[in-house]
Amino acid sequence: MVLDLFAGPGGWSVPLHRWGIREVGLEWDEWACRTRAAAGLLTIRTDIALYPAWIFSGRVWGLIASPPCQAWSMAGKRLGLLDQPLVHQAVADLAQGRDTREQLLAACRDERSLLAAEPMRYLHALHRSGEPEWVAMEEVPHVLPLWKQYAEVLRGWGFSVWTGILNAADYGVPQTRRRAILLASRTRTALPPPPTHAAVAEPESLFGPGRERWVSMAEALGWGATDRPVPTVCAGGGPGGGPEPFPSGSRQALADARDRGAWTRRNPGTGIVLASRREGSGWAERHGTRENRPADGPAPTFTAEAHRWSWSLRSNNQANATVRRADEPAGTLFFGHRANECVWVAEPLPEEGGEDSGAVESIRITAAEAGALQTFPAGYPWQGTKGQQFSQIGNAVPPRLAAHLLAPHLGKTLGPDDFTLAA
């Protein structure tokens, strides 16, 4: 089997499941475990730091690990960077069979920091029986020095190892998500997978077709190359809803529309830009009708003529937030607290006569949209409130990137189509 530590909602699992490979995921988060169960993925809900590693001996073909990144990520307080010497010490001790985690944990500034050392505990236990055959690990870029320490140990155990930083956009993910990767194998030379996409499309050469252009958010969400998108607007509390994930008092224009449900794109041929799905009791009194709004009529909340607006995705509320147009890949998606609220922002198109009202409207991204930008299959059964779903999505490995990292170990070939996994 393949043992997946910190399995999350199933980023690594999607390609493995599709390829029919038996995987056991270890995960602590309740809602990630519920999502995995709904997706038909085998999961042991446990604290990985307490679970005995020896029970898997003699059964593991491949080991996957994506430790929680909050302690190291730029999206958090990054106390894990201050704990790095302690984590390196834990890895060195565990590689020798010495468990000093309790003493080291007492000195850590972030209790999650030492979780990055847990894969070494499992690797040491499995190594006694000549396992696993291969290893794949992923984390935020700041963890690369730790992966290099792992690589040194694994090479001493007979593995070929590659470590480095990869950009998910180079593998068909509509997101410029950079991650530190470790790939190791006992049976083949470990190398990074060849990229399939580039910032600029490459022409065909004597060596074959060039790389395709990075996949844009519009392509991934099915908005089309020429169709100007109107993303779903979710005000929270609707069917299957739950509370808003990150309430924001800064969007006064949407605050008084909280009683209406969602606005979804309609076929442009009908002339309807927006249609009401659940307008609520106060909307009719304010606007005089519950009918759909035509393209040349006022659309409530955010635009008078939605087809004349350009949409971009803003990664968070901070001053240095990444903002990308819909015809580009997203920046790295991360969620977890109010400062990391990911929103669509709309601006008028001057060339089409759009008028600048002096304000830019913003609309929270939906879980379905975020999941698509992480390359999870459409309709993936996310469980929990919106906040819990966003947290799972932001922490997950994009399945498309996972497929490229795993394919060489599994003897699989990826098809050329975007987001298509070929057996």
UniProtKB/TrEMBL annotation:
<keyword id="KW-0808">Transferase</keyword>
<dbReference type="GO" id="GO:0003886">
    <property type="term" value="F:DNA (cytosine-5-)-methyltransferase activity"/>
</dbReference>
<protein>
    <recommendedName>
        <fullName>DNA (cytosine-5-)-methyltransferase</fullName>
        <ecNumber>2.1.1.37</ecNumber>
    </recommendedName>
</protein>
<dbReference type="GO" id="GO:0032259">
    <property type="term" value="P:methylation"/>
</dbReference>
<feature type="region of interest" description="Disordered">
    <location>
        <begin position="279"/>
        <end position="300"/>
    </location>
</feature>
<dbReference type="InterPro" id="IPR050390">
    <property type="entry name" value="C5-Methyltransferase"/>
</dbReference>
<keyword id="KW-0680">Restriction system</keyword>
<keyword id="KW-0489">Methyltransferase</keyword>
<dbReference type="InterPro" id="IPR001525">
    <property type="entry name" value="C5_MeTfrase"/>
</dbReference>
<feature type="compositionally biased region" description="Basic and acidic residues">
    <location>
        <begin position="279"/>
        <end position="294"/>
    </location>
</feature>
<keyword id="KW-0949">S-adenosyl-L-methionine</keyword>
<feature type="active site">
    <location>
        <position position="69"/>
    </location>
</feature>
<dbReference type="Pfam" id="PF00145">
    <property type="entry name" value="DNA_methylase"/>
</dbReference>
<comment type="similarity">
    <text>Belongs to the class I-like SAM-binding methyltransferase superfamily. C5-methyltransferase family.</text>
</comment>
<dbReference type="InterPro" id="IPR029063">
    <property type="entry name" value="SAM-dependent_MTases_sf"/>
</dbReference>
